[in-house]
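Figure S7 source data.
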Amino acid sequence: MSEKIAICPGSFDPITYGHIDIIQRAAAMFDKVIIVVMTNMNKKCAFSKEERKNMILKCVGNLKNVEVDLYDGLLADYAQFKNACAIIKGLRAMSDFEYEFQMALTNKKLNPKVETLFLTTSAENMYLSSSMVRQIASMGGDISSFVPSAIHDDIVKRLSSKEL
Ligand code: PNS
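Tokens for the predicted 4'-phosphopantetheine complex:
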């Protein structure tokens, strides 16, 4: 039987415990999970794609069936190119729903072979977001309960002098 490959796409600016929870749960369900750092045209990112990829590797590089990649094109094309059967997204409070639903339907139209699967965010991460982490770090707050220690200093060093 062929390998079941899932894609976890996102901006990951930066990766948080919320993303890590979704990645770990996806890795337990699929043969291979590819985390791909992509462009969200609605967001201006604080970290470069390479920086974001390196932070992801520091957090989940220990998971044997997880790879990290960068891609600049359409998610639907990337999924086809990687022969993936699923796109995995974490779903937080209701505010995520409309946007995620629209993306899932669009991706299905562009690539009918790939299914989008939503994993419910764990209750403790319900209100956690990368933008919150950036804002707290840029104002000198404590982000240690939102991101692993492996990337804590990378974020603080980079953002503590800026207000985002
Ligand atoms: O973490 P984010 O910012 O919510 O992730 C959104 C992302 C990067 C997955 C989305 O913007 C995306 O898929 N970008 C790639 C370009 C693309 O395929 N756009 C059409 C989506 S319907």
